[in-house]
Amino acid sequence: MKQEFAPHELALELKRLGFDEPCLGRWLVITEWEAPTGEVRLQLGTDAEDYDNHQFHAPLFQQAFRWFRDNHKHNGIVEGCKKYGFEWCIYPDIEYYIKPPNNFNTYEEAELACLNKLVEIVKSQHQREMKQAEPSNDMCECKVPQLQIKVSENGTYAYCTKCIRTINVNEK
Q1: Which of 12, 71, 146, 149 is deepest in the core (most CB within 10 A)?
Q2: How far is CA 169 from CA 24, 62, 131, 150, in A?
Q3: How far is CA 61 from the centre of its chain?
């Protein structure tokens, strides 16, 4: 069953990009006396709503693909066969596609590579949007704001996770 879930490294990247949807499980960072040991385990069952630094959502692969499609308009597709290998394509807004330079031996390898590329694309978009925003000193009450990007139907917003103030990055 574990192979149906995005690996914890990918799930953590999705969390950083704003993934916050109910899942069939969660990743737990094992701690000893509140000190992380580095071990990460998948816990199946109902997904808890109150997360701390030691746990985060464990999305299924198809859930991650759907999230990129619905929230970022990037449709990742894996195609091919065992005999000739597998490849992935990404169709952003159905205008063009990106293909990797080589084929993968298994569907799962291509699926993971496609999701990693989607993370890279969205991170790059967020960085460009943050540069455009150029937050001013009065945007945040914190001396060192910790900004995150949030995409909604009304546009893209940067917000400080300390004081929760937001700025509009770009209108849709």
Answers
A1: 149
A2: 33, 29, 9, 10
A3: 11
pLDDT digits (tens, 9 = 90+) for 11-62: 999 998 999 899 999 888 877 765 566 788 888 876 555 556 678 899 999 9
Q: What is the pTM of this model?
A: 0.71
* Residue 23 · residue 57 · CB < 8 Å: yes
Burial of 114 (0-12, 13-18, 19+ CB in 10 A): buried
